[in-house]
Amino acid sequence: MVAMSEKPIWDEWTQRIYLTWLVRDMRYAQVALLEIRVRAGQTPPDPLIWIPLETFLMFTAKVSKMLKPIGVDKGRPKNAGPAQDVYDRRKLRGEQLRAILEVDDASPVLDRKVRDASEHFDERLDAWTGEYPRVTAEEMETGDLPTFPAPPMRRVDHGSWIVEVAGETLNLEVIEVELRRMLARAMALEPLSTVEDPVLATLLAGLPPFPAELQLHAPTRRSDEDVRSGIDRQAAAGGQKDFDETIARAIDFLTTAEGTDDPGPDAPEAG
Questions:
Q1: Domains held by the chain: number
Q2: Is residue 167 part of a domain?
Q3: Which structural domain, as residue segments, surrounds residue 50?
Q4: How confident is the model over 177-200, as a mean pLDDT?
Q5: How far apart are the C-alpha atoms of 192 and 95, rounded to whole Å?
Q6: According to the UniProt entry, which residue ranges have a biased composition of type Basic and acidic residues (predicted)?
C-alpha cells in the first residue's frame, strides 16, 4: 500500500471526482432555471416560481462553495492538527477548480449574497419586526409618525430577470451565461462528465483509479530493461482492457435502460 502524503493531493482521479460532481450540480441548476422561465412565462406568472428558484439558488450555492470554500478566506488555523489539514485540502480544491475552469473573483457564481438572504430570511424578518416602531395614540393624534422601514421582500422581475431577496439582487441571465461557460469547460476537461446521466458519471468517477504502472503507456522504472515496473505487460494489458470494458458496459446498460419504456416481464398488467 502506498503511504498517503502529508500534503493535500490533486491528481487526475481527484480532478475527475470534483468535476463530475460540479457538472452534476450545474446541470441541476440549469433544469431549475428552465422551470423558472416556464412558470414566469405564464399569465399571470405562476406564484410557485419560488420553488424552482430556491432550487436554483441551492445548486448554484453548491457550485459556488465547491469553487470557493467557505472559511478559506479567514486564513489557515494557527494550531496544528486536523483543522489545518481540512483547510489545506479545501484551499487546494478551490484554487485548482477556479484555475482550470478560469473562474475569477468577479464571477457571478461566487456571489452568495442572494442565497444567504433567502436561506436566512427569518433573520431578516427578525430584524424588521424588532426595529419596526410601535405607534402610540398620541403620535397618531399629532400626526408625528415615525419612519417605517420597508419589509424584506422576495420577488422576481420577469422583464429584467433580476431576483431580489431582502435588498440583495441577482441577475439570472448573467449567472446563466457563466454556468454555461463553466459547464462547457468542465466537459472539455473531463469526458466522463458528458455522460447523459450525471449520477452515473459521479458513480463511475468514484471507482478506484487503475494503478498507473499497470497501464501500457506508463514509463519503465528501469530504463535499461524492457519492463513495466516488473509487471508482466500482457497481464497488465488484460487488466486494463477488463477495467475499460466494465465501465463501457455499465454506461451502455444504463443508457439503454433510460431510453426504453418496456416495463419488463414482471411488471403488473394495466387494468
A1: 1
A2: yes
A3: 7-121+149-192
A4: 94
A5: 22
A6: 221-231
